[in-house]
Design goal:
Elements (H helix, E strand, L loop, with lengths): L8 E7 L3 H15 L11 E5 L15 E2 L10 H11 L6 H20 L14 E8 L6 E6 L5 H16 L2 E4 L1 E9 L9 E9 L4 E12 L20 H8 L4 E2 L4 E8 L9 H4 L3 E3 L7 H4 L9 H13 L17 E4 L5 H7 L1 H11 L8 E10 L3 E2 L5 E6 L2 E10 L4 E2 L11 H22 L11 H18 L25 H4 L2 H16 L5 H18 L13 H25 L17 H4 L1 E5 L5 E5 L13
Parallel strand pairs: 1-2, 1-9, 2-6, 9-17, 15-18
Antiparallel strand pairs: 3-5, 4-5, 7-8, 8-9, 10-19, 11-14, 12-13, 13-14, 16-17, 19-20
Helix pairs in contact: 1-4, 1-11, 2-3, 3-11, 5-16, 14-15, 14-16, 15-16
C-alpha cells in the first residue's frame, strides 16, 4: 500500500502481521459479515507491520499445528487438554486450555478451507505426526496429533491467511514501526485504563505520526533476540511486550522462556521436532541414545524443557561433542542421528530440515550425524489477556480490563502454555485466539451506537512530542556520546566488544552483548548468582544504550534508528525477565533454578505479574478439574 494513505484515525489498528495479526483481521471482518451491524459504514481497520507480512516469523514454523482430528489413530480433545496442562507444569489456566483443545479441530479445518495445503493420508485426510508431549489416554503412548505440511506448516499458514486478508480488502501499512503505545491511567478503582492510540514511524518518509483507534491489538510476536543463540528471526525484539511495560502495564509469566532442544550447532537455526517425530535420535559423544535415561517411555519426544535440560546434563557430564565446523571449539553440542530415516521419506517429509543441514552445516543427514544444542525459541509469558483477547491489569486480586486494548499470539499470555509450551500449540494459540479477538472487536463495533470520536488527543500529542525530541537527538549524530566500558568485558572465553567508540555506538553490537549476558544469566538453567550478575550487567548496558546515536542525519529507511529503539525494548524486557526469574524461587517447566530445584505448589502455583517498576504481584492459576500432580515423561 501507499504509506501516504495512512490516516490519523481508525476503528481498529492491529500491530503485527504474522498468524495472530492476520487471524485477528480475518476474524474481525468475517464476524462483521455475519452480524447485522447498526452501521452500514465499512469499518476502518489497519494492520501495521515493521516487515512485509510474508516475512513474519510465522513463516519459519516447521513441524505442525496441534489438533485432535484423529485422522490416523484415535484421539480426543480431552487428551490434548490434559497433555497441555501437564506440559505447562500445571501453570496454565485450565479454562483457557479447554478452549484451546476443544476448538483446535475447527481452527485446523478452517485453515484448510482458507487454502493451507496440508500433507495428506492415502485416503485424502489431513496427515498428522507425533510431537513431544502429545499422548493418548491421559499420558499413555505418543499420539499423532500435529497436522503438518511437510515441514513448512508456518509458511503455508502465513501465505494462506495473507491471501485471505487481501481478498477481504484488509489495509496494510508495511515497514511502519510502532514506537509508543499510549494508555490513559485508570480513572477509578474499577478501571484498568483506556488505550488512546499509537505513535508510529513511517520508515519510508522518516516521519512520526499519531494514530487514534477505538481498538488496538498487539500481535508483535516473541523476543528470541534476548538471547545470542535463538531460532527466532532477527526482528523478534519483544516490541509489543516492551510497549506494554513502557505504557505502565504488566507482563505475566515472562520468566518462562522455552529453549528448543535441537538448534543447529552454533547457528541456533531450528531443526524441527518433526525430525525426531519421524525417527531422529539424540546421541551423546559415546554414541548412546540418552533420552530414555531421562524420560523413559517418551524418550526423544518428551516435552521440550525436559529434552533441553537432558541435553545440558549430558554436556555437563562431559558427554558433549564439538560442532564439526569448529572441531577445536567447545564440546557443547550433542548429535541428532537421522540416519535411520529412509532417504526418500526424509526428502518428502523433512525437506526444510534437510536443506538447512546441507546449507548451514555442510552435512548429509542421511549418512552424517548432526550437531545440535538448545536454542531460545518461545516466550510462554507476555501481555496478560482474557480468553477474548482483552488486555487487563491485575490489581487488588482482580482483573481490570484496559478499554480498547487487545493482544494475541506470542506477545500475549492467555495462559495456555504455562511454564512450558507443547510443540504444535503455538500456531494453534495464534490462529485460535487471534480469531476470537477479532470476533470480540467485531461484536463491540456492531453493538456501538456510534463511533467514539476520541476528541481528546492531548496524551497522544505529549507522547509524540517526547518521541520526536528523542528522534531528533538520535539523528543529531555522535558528537555528544560518551562511551563506557562494555558490560561483558570480564567474560571468560569471549572476545570483548571493547573499547573503541565506534564499537560501542553500535546497536547491533549491544544486542550481541545483551544476548550473551542473558545466556549466562538464565539460559536453560540459572540460580540467584547468575540472575543477579545479569542484572548488574544490564545496568551497564542501559548506560551504553543511552549513548547510542544514528550515524546518518535522516530517518528515511534508517534501520539504525529502529535498531536503537529495538535495543531499548529488549533492555526493558530483559530486566522484567530477570526480576521475575529472581522472584520465583522454584523450578517449574522451562525455568530451572539449580538453587531451588523442586516445584513448589504451596507458594508458586501462581502467575507472576510484573511491571516496568519491577513491582511483582501474584495471580492464582485457574484450576478447574486437573489438580496438580507429578510431571514425568
Amino acid at each position: 500500500m501507499n504509506p501516504q494513505k495512512v490516516k490519523n484515525r481508525y476503528d481498529a489498528v492491529i500491530v503485527g502481521a504474522g498468524a495472530a495479526g492476520l487471524s485477528t483481521a480475518l476474524g474481525l471482518y468475517r464476524a462483521l459479515e455475519d452480524t447485522e451491524s447498526k452501521s452500514s459504514l465499512t469499518p476502518r481497520v489497519l494492520v501495521v507491520s515493521k516487515l512485509q507480512p510474508l516475512r513474519s516469523h510465522t513463516g519459519s514454523a516447521e513441524g505442525g499445528i496441534a489438533a485432535s482430528l484423529g485422522n490416523q489413530e484415535k484421539d480426543d480433545w480431552h487428551w490434548h487438554y490434559y497433555d497441555t496442562i501437564k506440559g505447562s507444569d500445571w501453570l496454565a489456566d485450565q479454562d483457557a486450555v479447554r478452549i484451546l483443545a476443544e476448538q483446535a479441530p475447527g481452527i485446523v479445518i478452517e485453515l484448510e478451507h482458507d487454502g493451507v495445503a496440508f500433507s495428506r493420508t492415502e485416503d485424502g485426510h489431513i496427515a498428522q505426526r507425533k510431537f513431544g508431549g502429545h499422548t493418548a489416554d491421559y499420558g499413555g503412548h505418543p499420539v499423532r496429533r500435529a497436522a503438518y505440511a511437510a515441514d513448512r506448516i508456518g509458511h503455508q499458514i502465513l501465505h494462506a491467511l495473507w491471501q485471505q486478508c487481501l481478498r477481504q480488502g484488509v489495509e496494510f501499512a508495511e515497514e511502519w514501526y510502532v514506537t509508543d503505545l499510549v494508555v490513559d491511567p485508570p480513572a477509578d478503582d474499577e478501571s484498568g485504563g483506556h488505550a488512546r492510540g499509537l505513535i508510529v514511524l513511517d520508515t519510508h518518509a522518516g516521519k512520526l505520526q499519531t494514530i487514534q483507534a477505538d481498538n488496538i491489538v498487539l500481535c508483535t510476536g516473541g523476543a528470541g533476540r534476548l538471547f545470542h543463540t535463538t531460532s527466532n528471526s532477527w526482528d523478534l525484539t519483544g516490541d509489543g511486550m516492551a510497549l506494554a511495560l513502557q505504557a505502565g502495564l504488566q507482563l505475566e509469566d515472562v520468566e518462562f522462556i522455552q529453549f528448543h532442544p535441537t538448534g543447529l550447532g552454533h547457528t541456533g537455526i531450528l531443526l524441527s521436532e518433526a525430525s525426531r517425530a519421524e525417527g531422529g535420535v539424540l546421541r551423546n559423544s559415546q554414541g548412546r541414545a540418552f533420552m530414555q535415561n531421562y524420560a523413559p517411555g517418551h524418550g526423544d519426544l518428551a516435552a521440550r524443557d525436559v529434552v533441553s535440560r537432558s541435553i545440558m546434563a549430558e554436556i555437563d557430564a562431559g558427554h558433549g561433542v564439538a560442532d564439526p565446523s569448529d572441531p577445536d571449539g567447545p564440546h557443547d553440542c550433542v548429535w541428532l542421528d537421522m540416519t535411520g530415516i529412509d532417504g526418500q521419506r526424509m526428502t518428502a517429509l523433512l525437506p526444510q530440515v534437510t536443506e538447512t543441514i546441507h546449507r548451514y552445516a555442510h552435512l548429509d543427514p542421511t549418512v552424517d550425524m548432526v550437531p545440535v544444542k538448545p536454542t531460545a525459541h518461545y516466550t510462554m509469558g507476555g501481555i496478560p489477556i482474557t480468553d477474548r483477547g482483552r488486555v487487563y491489569r491485575w490489581r487488588d486480586g482482580r482483573r481490570r480490563i484496559v478499554d480498547g486494548l487487545y493482544a494475541a499470539g506470542e506477545c500475549s499470555c492467555v495462559s495456555v502454555h504455562g511454564a512450558n509450551r507443547l510443540g504444535g500449540n503455538s500456531l494453534l494459540d495464534a490462529c485460535l485466539f487471534g480469531t476470537r479477538t477479532g470476533q470480540t472487536i467485531a461484536a463491540v463495533m456492531a453493538n456501538s451506537d456510534k463511533p467514539n470520536d476520541m476528541a481528546d488527543a492531548s496524551s497522544l500529542t505529549q507522547v509524540l512530542q517526547r518521541r520526536q525530541a528523542f528522534l531528533d537527538e538520535l539523528l543529531a549524530g555522535t558528537k555528544n556520546a560518551e562511551p563506557s566500558e562494555p558490560a561483558l568485558a570480564d567474560n571468560q572465553g569471549e572476545e570483548p566488544d571493547t573499547g573503541d567508540e565506534a564499537s560501542l555506538n553500535n546497536p547491533y553490537a549491544l544486542m550481541g552483548r545483551l544476548g550473551r549476558l542473558m545466556e549466562e544469566a538464565v539460559a536453560v538453567r540459572c540460580d540467584q548468582d547468575s540472575i543477579e550478575k545479569g542484572l548488574r550487567g544490564l545496568d551497564q548496558l542501559d548506560d551504553d544504550a543511552r549513548q547510542l546515536r544514528a550515524h546518518s542525519g535522516t530517518a528515511v529507511f534508517n534501520q539504525e534508528v529502529t535498531a536503537i529503539m529495538e535495543v531499548d525494548n529488549l533492555l526493558t524486557l530483559a530486566r522484567a525477565v530477570l526480576n521475575a526469574s529472581l522472584r520465583r524461587q522454584e523450578s517449574r517447566g522451562a525455568l530451572y533454578r539449580s538453587d531451588y530445584p523442586q516445584r513448589d505448589d504451596e507458594h508458586y502455583l501462581v502467575h507472576t505479574m510484573i511491571d516496568a517498576k519491577e513491582d511483582v504481584s501474584w495471580q492464582p492459576v485457574h484450576i478447574v478439574d486437573m489438580p496438580p500432580k507429578g510431571r514425568n515423561y
